[in-house]
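Re: the request from the purification team.
They wanted to know what the chain is likely to look like in 3D before they choose a buffer screen. I agreed to run a prediction and write the result into the notebook, where they can find it.
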Amino acid sequence: MKKWFLLLAAAAALTLTSCGISAFDDPDAGIDGPYGHLPRMELVAADTAGKGSAGQLFGELVSAKTAEITQGRLTIDYHPNGDLGGDADLLRQVQCGGIDIVVCQTAPVASFIPEMAVFDLPMVFSRYDGDTIDRVLNDHQSQFFIQLSQAYERRDLHLLGFLQNATYRLTTANKPLNTLEDYKNLQIRTMENSNHMNFWSAIGANPTPLAFSELYFSLSSGAIDAQENAADSCVGINLQEVQKYLACTNHILYANQIAISKASFDELPAEYQEALSQAVAEALAEMRPKLAQLDADNKKFMTDYGMTMIEYDSSFFQEILELDTVKSLYDRIDGDVNGLGTTLRQSLEDAAA
């Protein structure tokens, strides 16, 4: 919930709006600086990212930059690591006004914004570098960004941006996965996401949804053969202790989105809207190299521990994308997202040209 604060000890006249927002007179109004004429305001933000993960570092950097840009007049009370609930809880709270900002990966958002299932298109980003992808996801003139932003607005959210740098969800296993044939009948743990599961089925594997908390034991006991996750998540629960191979399948882009309640954003003075957007842009620029380094460091950590890393050339991805089962999945997802998949693919091609 957005709060307006006096940061002095003096009492003030309190007015409650119908939305439950508290507003105070501000004796500092009119002080020097471009934001001095504006009231002090505070936004509440949260994530569920693990400590030290890219999502958490990004959200806290946005908070710090917002305060710095506005000289402390617009601040963000940031709650990391699931302090305020899981991804679905946070998204619901943002929609209903309980909190203002949410940072999370793309997959959970699809339950609230169906068009976000466009990120489930398997390997759609795998041929592109981080700069090319960034021009599509964060350029406000990109047709993809425009259409997706409109989908956010229809669900009472305002899209601020995406953190990515062409890092991906990877596959770990206890057998070598050198060719597409090696994935046949592979018992692999996935998130409980029908598009993700359908992809693994489409290439002949046996996807099994399983709680993340049960993953380490299930792999160590041999109940499942493999799993897929970003490199930092793999290291975070020490999967290098129970897995032998690290396959760079690059099947899903590892990206975090940041969004604000549309009502909260609309209520901000225009100067604060611009400051928040500037803070996000600066945090994205600063975090992108760190995201790539974090990915590289975690891969090195796993291989130094003893895992064998398997990398693929473009023919591997092309072979998968030419499967009739995968083409059918592309068509179904594109229909589910009202053609946004076609827009994404064309936008990526245009950006790479």
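For the purification team: The CA atoms of residues 265 and 273 lie 7 Å apart.
Please add any questions underneath this entry.
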